[in-house]
Amino acid sequence: MPPSYTDDQIVYAVRDGLIIPAQLDRMAQGMIDLVNKTRAAMSIDNYRFDVDAHDEVAHQAAIESIVMLKNDDAILPLNAGPVANPSATPQKIAVIGEFARTPRYQGGGSSHITPTKMTSFLDTLAERGIKADFAPGFTLDLEPADPALESEAVETAKNADVVLMFLGLPEDAESEGFDRDTLDMPAKQIALLEQVAAANQNVVVVLSNGSVITVAPWAKNAKGILESWLLGQSGGPALADVIFGQVSPSGKLAQSIPLDINDDPSMLNWPGEEGHVDYGEGVFVGYRYYDTYGKAVDYPFGYGLSYATFEIADVAAKTGANTATVTATVTNTSDVDAAETVQVYVAPGKADVARPKHELKGFTKVFLKAGESKTVTIDLDERAFAYWSEKYNDWHVEAGEYAIEVGVSSRDIADTVAVALDGDGKTQPLTEWSTYGEWEADPFGAKIVAAVAAAGEAGELTKLPDNAMMRMFLNPMPINSLPTLLGEGGKKIAQFMVDEYAKLAK
Asked: Which pLDDT tens digit goes with each residue over 40-49?
């Protein structure tokens, strides 16, 4: 039996005589690789890792994961008073939402792990001496709202200069064991946000969720929105660092936030029927679909605000053998030290297959002090321009012009440069079943098409009509169908082409 085979779109692998889905095989191999990587350390007698150092890694990862979606009236960062700025008068802060006290720091099901530490946002405030009034507001489940908790939260909000509302998805709303049927937050949380916003217009929403949720239905009730995802064991300190301005947020959206679940192309095939689901969207997944078909979204792929402002200039691209090196100058145009992520998208020109409008092919995150400029370099290899070809059963780079777009999201492109690539030269043998258009596109076939035209002018073959209507019929037509259009003359042209190809392709 071969090492792998495909059955109804599921790829299986054979390992030690067992047939298992290839995805599980890759997971198992990943676990084995991880064990092998740690074997050297774990073989040391009395080995102990540095818990605090590991926690700091988790802290930094959490900081860089936070995405600021909205910051109207520069409501963030907040002023914590003497803790951060001895000369400033502290704002009176209300913290509402059970997530601030009981963080949802990891996914559900088998992804559960035991952290070495766990520091909530409220724990962090206490450790740093930052005063805030707290009200849980709701329970972390999908049960109906508790009026007593809601009333307490609204009263707490009334007495604050600014309200931090910790909202999101409880574990009951998303897990590996079931599919979500909505992108909305629980209704009781949205209702509480509306009540709090009516009592205090200075609201910042801090989200906790494993995958995207719709924002548009409730965003009007918040001046600031931080998408913090599931931040891990050190999420509390990371949020405090961003909220109080010790660092500027620098995270970018890894998926678009749609306006409605029905805007997603997968909804045409989900949840499937009669025991199967078709992945009918093909390569048009996420931003590849939204951007190609001009679909409105709430927040685009790659989006993320900062306390700083940036400018990208001097975009250039130098090509190699179906590769490119992209350079750009990034300037921090503000008085805040911060990081920006420069994103490079490749937009193919005319292609033989359906391709997205553009695709992210490279990015780099650059930290800049206030007023500082740096030149960044992003290398694009051959795969950056390729698509998987069913015809060649391989990656294929077509010859032609490509646009290289440099920006800070899929819909915020600072500049575009064009490059011309020679392509990888892949061809397939031409036959009588190849279309006239395929003959024209092939290096050998193009010479033969020219020879047909010359023979037609000389009266040696039937002359092909040269008009738009005829081209429309010819290009998608196998050449063995030419007799349908031209009778016996078409048959002679097809035979001439096949014979000439046999000579050239030797």
From this structure: 877 888 777 8
